[in-house]
Amino acid sequence: MADEPISDDERIIQNLIAYCEDVPLKILRATSTKQLSQRLDVEGFVLGEYSNDWYGLAERTGYMTKEMRKFEQHESPTTALLNDWSTRLKMSPTVDTLLKYLVEIQRPDIVLDSEKSIRRDVEHSKQPARAPLPPKPKVPESDRYDAFVVYGNTERDIQFMKDMVNILEGEDHNIRLYVPGRDDLAGDEKYVVTAEMIANRCRRVIVVLSRGFEDSEDCDFALKLAQSLSPGAKTKRIIPILLDNVKIPLILNFVGTVNFTNPMQREWVWPRVAATIKCPLVPSIQDWQCTIDDLKNMKYDSKHVQHLLYGIGVACQEFPPEEEEEEKKGKKGEKKKKT
Asked: Where is this region: Disordered (predicted)?
């Protein structure tokens, strides 16, 4: 007798199994796994030797009852089964094996419904790996800046920025500042330039907090970008300068500000700002930690030690509240009168 002709569905399944031969199961992406799980997680019934759900697939794969109970505790037993199966090299964790087992447990419908998604995953896995991107060229020192200045667009902000440039870039401090509007790179989109300068060419970011800052979208973008590059202020990259008594942004609550609200005291504060800009982002522990030799060579005279111990004693002493002191004095006074 001549072989019976196969149906179109059977031909699609056979072609898919052949296409997926020896392809690792781990290449299946979330979409395919979700499609399989939605159908196999539903409790089925026994057709032949196995049930037509995830439990039957696990039995056909070779899992023991104890292991299948662990899969049952997950939100999606099928997903847990596929993830575990992909690590069991002795169980032939390949896509074509999965498809064959689905046919054996009487679920060709799942193979047909997932055919496009599985084929896309296999095609993606067979594509040659992309060549790694070449390393970014190092920015020459001539293109680097000590600090990026974030300031508002009001006349007062601009005047303060000019004063800052004259003082910090002067001979006393010799700091190189990147000032938007003065040093912008030509030809690029504004926010692209800001991101490039803050991320790769400027060591620190000076943020001038003022009323003009609150109304500026450019300032808001630059501040959030700088904070994202130094979460938790680990590298102390941002230097907030308080020009007006405004509300400090929440992302700067853990960063100490430099107070410039009093014009009479500004000339005292500029050296602190310059020193902060110049100090390393992540100081080496060797720069500040004492060595054993340093401790051995450290000499104190008797008066110094006496004052030191006295200060420690005062700092550690617990003083009673003033009300208790007054009560004690009153009681002592009464005792003296009686005597």
From this structure: 320-339
Is pLDDT larger for residue 147 or for residue 314? 147
Q: What is the pLDDT of residues 112-146, one digit of tens each?
A: 999 999 999 999 988 887 767 666 556 565 678 99
- Buried b / exposed e along 264-302 (16+ C-beta atoms within 10 A): eebeeebeebbeebeeeeeeeeeeeeeeeeeeeeeeeee
Q: Which amino acid, one-letter code, is at 66? A: K
4 token code pair: 């019976």
Provide the terminal-to-terminal Cα distance of the chain, rounded to the nearest Å.
134
Give 182-189 contacts, CB < 8 A, sequence gap 24+.
183/145
Q: How far apart are CA 71 and CA 121, in angstroms?
A: 24
Note whether 188 and 157 are within 8 A (CB): no
* 8 Å CB contact between 253 and 223: no
Amino acid at residue number 113: D
Q: What share of the chain is helix, strand, coil (3-state, %, to 5)?
A: 55, 10, 35
Structure-token pair, residue 13: 């399944």
The C-alpha atoms of residue 273 and residue 241 are separated, in whole angstroms, by 9
Compute CA distances 150 → 29, 94, 308, whole Å: 44, 56, 45
pLDDT at 316 over 90: no
Model-wide pTM > 0.85: no
Decide if pLDDT at 1 tops 50. Answer: no
| Beta-sheet pairing, 46-47 with 50-51 | antiparallel
Domain architecture of the chain: domains with CATH? 8-126 (1.10.533.10), 142-278 (3.40.50.10140)
- Which has the closest alpha carbon to 60: 86, 20, 111, 97? 97
Residue 335, pLDDT > 80, answer: no
